[in-house]
Amino acid sequence: MTSPLILRLRQYGKLGDPAAQALLACRKHNRLVEPGHCLIQQAEKTDMLFWIESGWAMRHRNLANGRRQILNLLLPGDICDLQGLVDTRADHSVTAMTAAMVCEVEPDRFLDLLNADPEIAASLLWSVVQEEGILREHIVRIGRRSARVRLAHLLLELVRRQALGGGPSDGLIEVPVTREVMADCLGLTPVHVSRTLSELRRMSLVELQPRGRLRITDIDTLAREADYDTRYLHLARPGHVLDRAGAGQA
Predict the structure, then answer these.
(1) Cα dihedral angle (214, 199, 227, 125), rounded to 10 degrees?
(2) pLDDT tens digits for range 175-218
(3) CA 18, CA 24: separation in Å to the nearest integer?
(4) 164 to each of 3, 16, 50, 92, 225, how far by Cα in Å?
(5) Beta-bridge partner residues of 80
(6) For the whole model, what pTM was predicted?
(7) Which domains are seen in the chain, by residue range?
C-alpha cells in the first residue's frame, strides 16, 4: 500500500518510484501515539521532523487565558514540522486528535536527501506552498466569512485534503471532529457550531453518521454556498468534484 505522504506529494507532479523510496527510507522509526499525545510543545526546542502516516493531529496555539486557537488540522500525508530543520523553539503545539502513526525523520539525513534529489526537493517545496495557502485561506475564513460559510468551507477542505492522502473522497469525513475542535478552528463557540451544523442539516447538505462522523451529502451545493475554490491547494492534478466546482488548479 502506498504511503499517504507519497500519494499527497504526487498531487503536485512527478515523483518517481526511486525518489519515493528514498524519501520513505529516511525514516528513523515509526511511532504509534495515543489521542491527546503532545508531539510538539509550544515554546520548547524542537529538533524532530515527522509526517503523519495514519490518524489526525492538530496544530494549535495555547493562550495565557487557557483558550486555544487551532491553526490547522494535520491529516495522513502531512509533514510536520519543518521547524525541526532549524535550531529554534516551537511557536505552536502539535497534539494527536486520534491514535496516530507518526514517521519520525532525522533532520540531517532529510536535508542531505533534499540536496541530493531535486525531484524530492521540488515536491517538498510544493508541500510548503500548499500549507501556506491553507493558512492564508484560514485567515480569510475566520476573518471575513459568516459562521455558516466558515463551517462549510472547513468541512469541504477536510474532504478534499483527506482524499489527497488516499482517504474518502465521497463527502465522508473519516475522523469524528468534535464541536469543540471545530469551534477552536473557526473562532466560534461550540454552541454556535452546533446551531450552524443543525442549519446545514436542515438544508440537507450534511448528515451525521455512526460513531460521530459527518458526511457532506450534497458537495456541489455546499461548495456553491461556501464559494469554495480549491486553487489555494495548488493542485497540479485536479480530479475531485470540488476541483471542478472551484475552477481546479492554480
Answers:
(1) -30
(2) 999 999 999 999 999 999 999 999 999 999 999 998 889 999 99
(3) 10
(4) 11, 17, 18, 25, 23
(5) 50
(6) 0.93
(7) 4-117 (2.60.120.10), 145-245 (1.10.10.10)
